[in-house]
Amino acid sequence: MQTKSENFLFGTELPTVEVDGGLTRKLMGYDGQLMLLEIKFKAGSIGYQHKHIHSQTSYVVSGVFEVSINGVTQILNPGDGFYVEPDVMHGANCLEEGILIDTFSPMRQDFLLK
Predict the structure, then answer these.
(1) Which end of the chain is less crowded, N or C, counting CB atoms within 10 A of the terminal residue's CB?
(2) Which positions of the chain have pLDDT values less than 50?
(3) CATH numbers and ranges of domains, the chain
(4) Cα-Cα end-to-end distance for the chain
């Protein structure tokens, strides 16, 4: 398994992975300690409640999202962001079609397998 991306990645050349529920994911760069992804959501798509061992930060590029972290829910708009500690339940409902930029530390090896 590759543990480091190329130094330069061009969005138009990167593969897009279809994820359940109207989401697509594009891997934008990674090494063993860090991973950056672009996640596109269709309106009404749900990023189901889940948890993982990774620290996560996310930035709302476009759209409107209802984000829940550890039982607290907020509405986020373009320019907003959020942080999720390791092993904390979280999820997002897309209210208006949009894009999130997600970062994970360490990298999500499970995303390399799909």
Answers:
(1) N
(2) none
(3) 15-112 (2.60.120.10)
(4) 12
SS3 readout for the chain = CCCCCCCCCCHHHCCCEEECCCEEEEEEEECCCCEEEEEEECCCCEEEEECCCCEEEEEEEEEEEEEEECCEEEEECCCCEEEECCCCCEEEEEEEEEEEEEEEECCCHHHHCC
- Predicted TM-score (pTM) of the model is 0.92
Structure token digits, residue 39: 């996640």
Percentage above 90 pLDDT, the chain: 87
Asked if 43 and 95 count as a contact pair (C-beta separation under 8 A), the reply is yes
65 Cβ neighbours under 8 A, 6+ residues apart: 41, 75, 76, 92, 93, 94, 95, 98, 100
